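Annex B, item 7. Sequence and structure tokens for protein A, then protein B.
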Amino acid sequence: MELAFVIEKFALVIVIFMISLGVAAYSTLAERKIAAFLQGRVGPHRAGWGGMFQPLADGAKMFFKEEIIPTQSNQFLFIAGPSLALLTALIGSAVIPWGQSLTFGDTVVQLQVADINVGILYIFGVVSLGVYGIMIGGWASNNKFSLMGAIRAASQNISYEIAMGLSIIALLMVTQSLSLKEIAAQQSGFINWNVWAQPLGFLIFIICAFAECNRTPFDLPESENELVGGYHTEYSGMKLGGFLFAEYINMFISSAVMATLYFGGYNFPFMNDLGLPQNIITLIGVLFLFAKIFFFIFFFMWVRWTVPRFRYDQLMNLGWKVLIPLGIANIVLTGIWIIVKDTYFK
């Protein structure tokens, strides 16, 4: 039984790993296509039908590109930086419930790698570790622009993690659980989605997600017109690819977390009234979860090509003077709402 359990989890890890890499690869094509659409262009269209093979061409280019390591850099940390960034981006998917269970005879397969009762704390731990890859890569490059990008990334992540944590505290007051599986299970039914109970908390969370993923308008650590390329200025080949893949995987995992915490996760309207076999309902739920994820990925890309980059002082002011006070106010309002509901609407 233990061997079967290990094989099941190993297979699930491989599937999620391949899906994460595939989504990250084709997010690059989607980004360029969306940018082209918004700007009245065609976008990539030569590598395959409609540019479908463009991510494969880009990957091959990076794989065969010359690897350059600056002579004055710390070579071990220079290589470790993108590796750590990619690793921390991937391990965040371990606690996300991708769907309900699948049943094959006497075997029940849970579509979640690890159902730990502190799943949200695990996500926050992974998010806080993610900046170390950027910091190490920026410092090890021995380049002033890279170092400035690393410092910006560190201060930005610290600032916005606080506001994100405050938004989650209010959500925990409503759900009474740290387990992502239990939070998703509580949201069966459209009216039970947490976004209706925590609209301000969701707004704070998604803004902080933009900052944590270094996405425009919060891409100050790598702003090309100021820092050449920021923390990955000195990188080329697959080391640069590691940083780029980490950014798109972070966007994918952040979208999955938002869908799970606020938009019902794998739940969809009338799922309990269809009368279909459980396995079919589970697979439909997985498709609905990925539809929500792809919507958020599109939103990330849409914002990138419509909103200009903030100045650094604006970035810090938004984090410390706007989002943190709003997060505290949201906690107070949530507490009042819970007291009133328990007192008058039992």
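Protein B:
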Amino acid sequence: MTGVILEKKMRKVLVVLLFLGWAVGNLDRYLMNYAVVYIGKDLSLSATETGLVLSSFFLGYALMQLPGGILADRFGAKRVLLIAVIVWSIFTGLTAVAWTLSILLVIRFLFGIGEGGFQPSASKIISTYYPENERSKVMSIMLSSGGIMSMLVPIISAVLLVTIGWRAIFIIAGIIGVIIVLLYWKVIPKDNGVKEEKHVSNDAPKVKQILGKLFKMPLMWSLVVAYFTIYAVNWGLNSWIPTYLSDVRNLDLMSIGGLQMIPGIIMILAMLISGYVIDRVDLKISKIIGAFFALLLAVFLLLMFNATSITLFITYQCIVMFLMTFVILLLPSFVLKKIPSEYAGTAMGMANTGGQLAGFVTPTLIGLMVDAFDGSYNAAVWMLVIISIVCVISILSIVEKKQDVGGTA
């Protein structure tokens, strides 16, 4: 199925729904970064075990990226979106009943499996229903909800964690997810041009051919590495900054929540600005800008963690957030604009697998490093700096030309 551009009014409705869905998904992710401070105390977790809790979601999420993309391409993006939100809502609510570390790890892993189909399916919807010169903007609007959640969740967490507790918060988040399911079911256009399940077996070689083509593209492997490196920095920071500010900078949760609103605002602005710029500037130029920003990212990470005051720390964090956000939005633009819409779900799933594997590895690795160095974050910071430099190289290796996945249609 080639792109079917919707009328303007419906495109606006659709982007609002994608924005809301991504907001709810990020609500849970960011909640865990703050709730884990209390969960760690309730379950007597070490820094390494805390890192495992933060990482377990990303293992399930990463493992579901490629299957989620394949399913969206074959069965339709709406179906996969509905299943994704249903499953993640169930396991978000079940987080509240976790009484041991092992149970919590299983629930968070299954939550990740549920959410794993969302971004590949959303990317396919964007690639199918929007003209090419709007796709980065639409993606930026959807992803900006993550910035809004990063701004709101610290305050929400600071208030609710000390009043109703972390278990009640996750039940509420699960209920919100059910509301999103109903909206998606009623409003998102029906899937057209996809095979019914009873005919899928006849098309099995097609999937292998598509994957074979994608696996042979230098573009895709450059994106996998670039996704891994930028999301290693992203989720390393998001997962550990609340704990770092509490343990090293001696801030209380309310102060952390208030301060983290500032980088959250910067993320939202950076996302919207980046989408506008990338849609209007040749990808070859955007790629050079992205590589330069990734290099600056390494510099400002060092400045941030060596800041002599909280004011300087937050200032550098805002710069880090701006630089990182541009790169995060640049990478999916290569899939949305250089891969045919018929295979956009699978391609996005493949690329995003790298990013979510980073989300699994990095929080645990940082926890191990903090334990190994008696509470010092220095080794972890240098790891993020080196990863940023690898990101520069991977971005520069990306091929900008239109990709052909012919022979599979």
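Comment on protein B: Residues 8-43 form the longest helix (36 residues).
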